[in-house]
Amino acid sequence: MKAVVFHALGDIRLDEVPEPKLEADTDAIVRLTSSAICGTDLHFIRGTMAGVEPGTILGHEGVGVVESIGKGVRNLKVGDRVVVPSTIACGYCPLCRSGFYAQCDNANPNGPGTAFYGGPKEAGGFNGMQAEKVRVPFANINLVGLPDGISDDEAILISDIFPTGYFGADLADIKPGHSVAVFGCGPVGQFAIASAKLFGAGRVFAVDQHADRLEMARNQGAEIIDFSKEDPVKTIKKLMGGIGVDSVIDAVGVDAEHAHSGPAQKSNTSEDAKKASSTAREEGEHFKAGDGPMQSLAWAVDAVAKAGTVAIIGVYPPGDNLFPIGAAMNKNLTIRMGNCNHRKYVPMLVELVRTGQVVPTAILTQREPLSDAISAYEQFDQRQPGWIKVELEPAE
Length: 396
Prior knowledge:
The protein has 396 residues and is of the alpha/beta class. It folds into two domains: 2-160 and 341-393, Medium-chain alcohol dehydrogenases, catalytic domain (Quinone Oxidoreductase, Chain A, domain 1), CATH 3.90.180.10; 165-337, NAD(P)-binding Rossmann-like Domain (Rossmann fold, 3-Layer(aba) Sandwich), CATH 3.40.50.720. The chain is built from 13 helices and 15 strands. Strands 3, 4, 5, 6, 7, 14 and 15 form a seven-stranded mixed beta sheet that branches. Strands 10-9-8-11-12-13 form a six-stranded parallel beta sheet, sandwiched between helices. It has a two-stranded antiparallel ribbon with strand order 1-2. The longest helix is centred in the last third of the chain and has 13 residues, at 342-354. The two termini are 12 Å apart.
């Protein structure tokens, strides 16, 4: 079968690989009808998150049809349409029972961290879903059935980015009438905006520097702030009477751009980008708060009101250890963060989409065949205008 395979930093290819097989009674094989490219995938290619082994199939978002199942899977049958939550959970450990599926004790064979598809060895080393088929462990938990009324275009957004945005709004402790600032208006940021409104937010500020993302945020009713043209913290405080917002959601992560970083980085499929990314990590490059990747965190702490809440859902690698802790402590802030517990939210979001309470497909800007995946990666990596969320279609 065809799949997008990681070979080295800056080197991904569309390869012919063996089809997955059942390895346990609780497995299922899903023939994928939709996949997607996520900003997290770019972390692996750029080297800002290390540890992906050569030969790993990328991609952690998927929709498809159950092709085969182990005898231990009792709630599904061959032919069922399903969405695959991005993180993997067993469903029976104490953490899963408490809703912390991303911290499952049993799903990750390589350690205590979050298990997910298409990621580093420390995340389990599971092959991902930018492919024609995928093996799903603990399939009774890690597959959610889809009603006929939900299209693949809608369902692929429920696999990862909608739950993650909703998770951010949940962490932000938004109450009806609250003001919220969302830093980063990529796909997850867009769903954080939509989710903040579902929680009853009175005002939502959207901070980014890309015109297409800001326009999409404004179409959702957010008040937009272009940080390349104005100081976002000063603007937020001015619009909020000098107080700041009740909650901030950091939907950016380690690959953040900031006002002094110059033009957006070119595609890291180039040799120069590959060498630069590798050298920075090998030499242990760090960033101080208010510079580069940490800028959004510094802004978040500064922009939130005293006794407010900062929710961090942007991806940061385990080795990053800088945070404006003194400023946060002296404002009595609540800081909540983590990897999304996808399985907690996916069934509920499926129902919201089925009933028409949320129409998620405005976020989906490109639909490309799997055969054009490498070109799609390049366009997405360069943040070409209009390239906000890319769906891949593995199956004919």
